Amino acid sequence: MISRFKQTWAFVYRDYQLTRRYWSWVVVFTVYAVVSGASVALIGVASNDRKLTLTLTIGVLFWSVLSVLFNEIAMSIAFERWEGTLEYTFMAPVSRLIHLTGVSLYAAAYSTLRAIAVLGGLFLFLDLDFTGANLFGLLIVLVVSSLAFVGLGLIAAILPVMSPERGAEATNIFQSILLLVSGVYYPISVLPKWVQPFAALSPATYALNASRKLLGVETMTPDGKLIGQPLASVQSELVTLAALGLLLVPLGLWVFGMAERWAKRTGKLKRTG
Which of 23, 181, 217, 219 could form a disulfide bond with 227, CB atoms 3.0-4.6 angstroms apart? Predict the structure, then answer.
């Protein structure tokens, strides 16, 4: 057990060192996330609509966490290929479960810290007040929804394995589809009828619905005071998110294992493919 913990921690520490190595990228992407998020939320300010402002803000914050969590896991293979360590990692005497658990734990920690930085940046542009919101409930939703996004990230991580040249770009397409169908910045009802059914397949849809209820956007008083709903009011969303997590994480591990075995047979682990 101790040896497995050390192995898992080794992958967490390795990814931390990679982040330190490319710290300038972290700064650039964080500043971009703050500026782009503020640009979205200020649409509500320009409309003089507090409800719209808060709806857009919660969309920015949750997408900041979930998209980074997804992207860090999905891109972990691409990073290893760029570093030239992918073949060594896949041939090391370490189970893939331990490897991917370490990657996922670091991604969760990094995405949370990035979201805190984004929230701090938004306070520079917006007059935000979350008094009355069920912040503890929001944290629960974030934790539960993270499992489903870990599973999606594991599935998307096979793309850089299968295509050394275009796999990394394909993960961005995957992420953009989730952004489109999940109603991050707008209600699902504005989507074309043929697109709306896909929203039910995205964990972000349920996470955002639950977070807006807990924030109190839908039950806001006429003077703009938030009235966050209790955790029991989002029970159906939490159950759905938990079910998606229990489905997608094992599915992601299975799909990743299939892709790994295929890559080893076909020699796709080389840096150049």
Answer: 219
